């Protein structure tokens, strides 16, 4: 990871994401708290004040797929994520209409030192501008899925995106707390925290 990027997160001119209600005008520090469950995919997402923002609920005993449902602080389902094996990708839908709104998949490549790198990329259409964008989490290692989070435009191909836009602008960092499997998600203001939190959680289960 680049220490300079952690200290110098991008300042966004306007809200970026799927829904402006999840784009707040202050830095966010979220805790992604893993809960015991049969699926192993249940989490509580809290802000820095301890307020519950979202929850995830994974499906247990599915043979050929993963279903992860995300609810808001009023327990209303807001997103439903589906991965069908052996595909290394989650498709994310709005409940009821089942309209696909973004996708999360694995990303492999070479870093600037010539070594192999891995991460996840989330492709979505920005709600305000209508521009296709992607959020990239560059993992420290594929086993330790923590690292810097970047935002860049999406022209449809991972290699072309990097060639045209570089790694993008740094918008956050996914790290650890001292306790258990909980993750710490730091975000710049105006980025859609729901979009990034769902990316961080779903990415854990891609292989």
Characterize the largest beta sheet: strand count, sense, and whether it forms a barrel: 12 strands, antiparallel, barrel
Got a strand count?
A: 12
Q: Share of helix among residues?
A: 10-25%
Q: Unreliable segments (pLDDT under 50, ≥5 consecutive)?
A: none
Number of helices: 3
Which range does the strand content fall in? 35-45%
Mean pLDDT: 86
The CATH superfamily appears as LURP1-related
Structural class: mainly beta
Give the overall shape, derived from the CA principal axes: globular
Please give the alpha-carbon distance between the first and last residues. Answer: 22 Å
| CATH topology grouping | Porin
Total number of domains? 1
- What's the CATH architecture name? Beta Barrel
| Element string (H = helix, E = strand) | HEEEEEEEEEEHEEH
Pfam families: LOR
Structural overview:
- It is a single chain.
- This protein starts with a helix and ends with a helix.
- It is built from three helices and twelve strands; from the N terminus they run αββββββββββαββα.
- The chain has a single domain, classed as LURP1-related (Porin), CATH 2.40.160.
- 12% of the residues lie in helices and 43% in strands.
- The protein has a twelve-stranded antiparallel barrel.
- With 207 residues, it is mainly β.
């Amino acid at each position: 990871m680049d220490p300079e990027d952690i200290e110098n997160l991008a300042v966004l001119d306007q809200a970026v994401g799927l829904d402006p209600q999840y784009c707040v005008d202050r830095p966010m520090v979220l805790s992604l708290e893993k809960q015991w469950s049969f699926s192993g995919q249940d989490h509580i997402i809290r802000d820095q004040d301890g307020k519950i923002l979202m929850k995830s609920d994974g499906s247990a005993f599915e043979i050929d797929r993963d279903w992860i449902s995300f609810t808001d602080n009023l327990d209303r389902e807001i997103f439903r994520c589906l991965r069908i094996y052996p595909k290394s990708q989650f498709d994310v839908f709005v409940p009821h209409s089942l309209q696909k709104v973004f996708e999360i998949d694995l990303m492999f490549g070479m870093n600037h030192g010539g070594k192999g790198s891995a991460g996840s990329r989330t492709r979505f259409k920005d709600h305000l501008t209508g521009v296709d964008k992607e959020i990239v989490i560059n993992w420290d290692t594929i086993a330790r899925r923590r690292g810097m989070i970047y935002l860049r435009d999406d022209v449809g191909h991972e290699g072309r995106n990097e060639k045209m836009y570089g790694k993008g602008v740094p918008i956050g960092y996914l790290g650890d707390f001292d306790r258990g499997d909980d993750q710490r998600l730091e975000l710049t203001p105006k980025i859609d925290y729901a979009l990034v939190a769902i990316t961080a959680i779903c990415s854990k289960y891609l292989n």
